[in-house]
Amino acid sequence: FVCLSNNYGVYQKAFFAGPNQMGAKYDMPQTLKALEKHRKDITLFQNLDHGFTGGHAGVPVLLSGVRPILAHNYAEGNISVDQKLAEYHGAATRFSSMTLGVRERNLLSFTRTGVQVPSIDMRAAYRAMFFEDTPQKKVSQADRFKRQNSILDVVRDQAKSLNRELSKQDQHKLGEYLDSVRTLEQKIGQQEPWINRPKPKTDVPEPNPGNRTEEQLKAMMEIIALALQTDSTRAITCVSGFANGDFGLNGGYHGFSHHGERPEPVAALKKIEGYQIAMMSHLIDLLKAQEDSINGGTLLDHTSILYGCGMASGGHSTRNLPLVLAGGGFKHGEHKVYPGPSIKHKKSWANQTPAANLLLSILQNSGLEIDRFGSSTGTLTGLEWS
Question: If you average pLDDT over every residue of the chain, what do you get?
Fold first, then answer.
């Protein structure tokens, strides 16, 4: 699973096909033109969202469907799709997940205890995957794991004694803390076997930091493809943003997102978001070209790539999220339009299909035997497996 995102949504008029262009015979929207050659491998969605307002507060909800402040109402909190998959795959890969960032904070990944997973840059990711650790460092890592386990044992024993003296509310809080301890124990257990296993080799050179985000984002797609090709991880998120000067534009991405329909910032957004989509297309090219020696077919056949953002537009709307899905063994090739807001109650989400239904479909297609995820009401109607 790969999620490509940004923190500002999209310029919707250039991103969405017309609401009456349902099915396979739709006109590819201007921002998505780079995906035209992959038309049969992608699905566009319209009128999916997580059913609340909140502007930037929607960004960290994209892959969970649950606002962090409401996580206590859900059995698994606000765990994100990538971290759910990280739990599912466990120690099958060296890295349970990979959280990448390009100049922007990656706000997508959360554990079941609500902890945001920190992001790393592409050079750190490359070195972690392909640079062999020295014998001294391997011994140091093993010793650190032993110390951490000893500390966790002490914490757990002390917590049992403390729990008897607490109120029910405090016992609940302590329970949440112990869940975090158990999560850390699991991660240590998953990482330990990999200390002395040799890392894969690659002919691809270490990436340069890149002075321009365009260069960085393209290199990031190639790092993602390498991670999947070497089965270093099976759950990746990447957030990209653009700073002043990129594409020869005078101004920043955040400022452009508050365009007010002014021609210059709108044109800038089309360039920026069109490039993001072009990099999604580049990643599809890379995965299509790589055979999957374990499962047959290509890596794209067994990798779901989701482009989207939990905030729909720079105007702080969280309605009708920009979502495009590629690969993953789904039946693609269509523009799917789901019911919009109630005509009688324009602010009501009662008749709408939750975006979390798409997340559940992705998880089920990845092998998880679950019937609910976050705020889902079931799998996404009309999205079938091939």
Answer: 87
